[in-house]
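Practice problem 4.
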């Protein structure tokens, strides 16, 4: 999937000259945790989010450092913190170190950016302007849609083959030691595994096949070093 397939569009934006109060009211009213900040020609210049408003003088939560740390960081850092916690303009509070993606950026890359930068939203740009935004909520909505998609049930033989194919492709279990039987959609898993974690992976693989009505686990775990074995009901 690509960013454009899950992004929210059109999006709510705010100007850098707007007040912090306006930004807060917009976020509360529209139930969003952040707003892209765009200038008069529609260029993205920053993002203001709930995280940018945690350390505010009105709440008494502005940052206070020890004198020795202030000395090491220099007066400029303290001055910058003062502006961030006291200014009433979006331009002074917003985050300007932002990352963006294109509409055609694979969703996998979007998620990697979110994890690497520890952010909850990524603006989507086109021709210099903001065409949408991908948030964690957008990813959850996309997950619901794909989970709810109508899928044609497979036959018993198709289910069996797809389980074997998946195990072979993923490589986390020895496909040659697993035996799969399918009768009227019910899957019975037998054979040998050499790591207990493989058990759940194989079960999930079977449960995810369209047409499966149930799964019975008869696989035996063999500890490679000692040769000890354990059945699933032991």
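Answer key:
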């Amino acid at each position: 999937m690509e960013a454009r397939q899950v992004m929210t569009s059109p999006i709510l934006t705010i100007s850098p000259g707007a007040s912090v109060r306006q930004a807060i009211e917009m976020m509360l009213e529209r139930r969003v945790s952040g707003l892209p900040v765009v200038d008069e020609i529609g260029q993205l210049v920053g993002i203001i989010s709930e995280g940018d408003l945690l350390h505010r003088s009105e709440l008494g939560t502005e940052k206070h450092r020890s004198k020795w740390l202030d000395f090491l960081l220099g007066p400029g850092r303290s001055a910058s913190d003062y502006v961030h916690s006291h200014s009433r303009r979006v331009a002074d509070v917003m985050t300007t170190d932002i990352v963006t993606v294109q509409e055609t950026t694979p969703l996998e890359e979007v998620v990697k950016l979110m994890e690497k930068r520890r952010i909850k939203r990524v603006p989507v740009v086109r021709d210099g302007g903001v065409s949408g935004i991908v948030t964690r909520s957008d990813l959850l909505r996309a997950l619901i849609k794909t989970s709810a998609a109508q899928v044609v049930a497979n036959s018993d033989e198709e289910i069996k083959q797809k389980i074997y194919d998946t195990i072979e492709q993923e490589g986390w279990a020895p496909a040659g030691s697993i035996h799969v039987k399918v009768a009227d959609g019910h899957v019975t898993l037998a054979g040998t595994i050499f790591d207990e974690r493989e058990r759940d992976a194989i079960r999930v693989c079977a449960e995810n096949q369209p047409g499966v009505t149930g799964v019975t686990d008869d696989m035996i775990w063999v500890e490679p070093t000692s040769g000890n074995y354990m059945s699933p009901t032991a």
